[in-house]
Automatic annotation (TrEMBL):
Residues 275-285 have a biased composition (Acidic residues). One of its GO terms (biological process) is vesicle-mediated transport. InterPro entries: JIP3/JIP4, RH1. GO terms for molecular function: JUN kinase binding; kinesin binding; MAP-kinase scaffold activity; signaling receptor complex adaptor activity. Residues 226-241, 263-274 have a biased composition (Polar residues). Residues 195-208 have a biased composition (Low complexity). This is Uncharacterized protein. It comes from Phlebotomus papatasi (Sandfly). One of its GO terms (cellular component) is cytoplasm. Residues 31-125 form a coiled coil. Keywords: Coiled coil. Pfam families: RH1 (PF09744). Residues 190-210, 225-285 are annotated as: Disordered.
Length: 285
């Protein structure tokens, strides 16, 4: 360029050319630096994009988990609410049961007190009945002793009267048939009185002993009337014999036996009747 144009011209252009070259070199270096920065920024951008994708997927997972946890929490809340309602209903039922049990316990205590009072009354009644039973047994023993003595004396009297009546009945002839039947009836009555297996035993009670005494008195009266009638017939044989009916005496003995059988267990019947009344009262209460 110096040869072509001139040295002065080149002198003026050289600093400009150097400056341009320097500027070009600086621009090239800056361009390279910018390319490097661009690559770095691209890498950073890619990293940020991948990180963004990861964060986005993580956020989606977190949101899904949040929804699942919310659903679970809502289900648990519903379950807990239902359990709470059931527990409240159970508590109310238990309170009612407790109240009813307290009322039932109070009623049972009242019933127990009533039963204790009734038991004390029954115990007193039982002691009274036991005392009366003991007194009754003692009186029965005394009456049995007196009755046996009276029966032995009465049997002796009947034997004496029978011994007196036998010769008179033999001498009376055909008229003595009625007296023999009467004698047989009196013997049957005495056997029913004196027999140990009859209804006039120790199991008949005080009424049976009174009936036996009445029966013995009637037999004594019948024996006296028989002796008087036989004596009258012996003194007056032409008179017609009066018919003798032995059936009433036997029927009397039977009726008395039935009466004794009915009135034999009066004390036990009274006890059973009172037990039945007490059981009915307990059922009613």
């Amino acid at each position: 360029m110096i040869q072509r144009y001139d040295e002065d011209v080149v002198k003026t252009l050289m600093p400009l050319l150097v400056n341009v070259l320097e500027c070009l070199d600086a621009a090239y270096q800056s361009n390279q630096e910018q390319d490097v920065e661009l690559e770095l920024l691209r890498e950073d951008n890619e990293q940020l994009v991948t990180q963004y994708e990861r964060e986005k997927s993580a956020r989606k997972q977190a949101e899904q988990k949040l929804l699942e946890t919310e659903d679970l929490a809502e289900a648990e809340n519903k379950d807990l609410a239902s359990r709470l309602e059931s527990l409240e209903s159970i508590v109310r039922m238990l309170e009612l049961k407790h109240k009813n049990s307290l009322e039932h316990a109070s009623r049972l205590e009242e019933r127990e007190s009533e039963l204790k009072r009734e038991y004390s009354k029954l115990h007193e009644r039982y002691t009274e009945l036991f005392k009366t039973h003991v007194d009754y047994m003692e009186r029965t023993k005394l009456l049995m002793g007196s009755t046996h003595s009276q029966m032995s004396s009465t049997s002796d009297r009947l034997d004496v009267n029978r011994a007196r009546l036998h010769p008179m009945s033999r001498s009376s002839g055909p008229v003595s048939y009625g007296f023999a039947s009467l004698e047989n009836s009196t013997m049957l009555d005495t056997e029913t009185i004196c027999s140990p297996n009859g209804s006039s035993g120790s199991d008949s009670g005080p009424l049976s002993f009174q009936n036996e005494l009445d029966n013995i008195q009637t037999l004594e009266k019948a024996a006296e009337t028989d002796s008087l009638q036989q004596m009258n017939q012996a003194t007056s044989p032409q008179s017609e014999p009066s018919p003798v009916h032995p059936a009433p005496s036997s029927s009397m003995g039977r009726s008395m036996t039935k009466k004794e059988q009915r009135s034999g267990n009066t004390l036990y019947q009274e006890l059973s009747f009172q037990d039945n009344e007490e059981s009915e009262e307990n059922e009613v209460t």
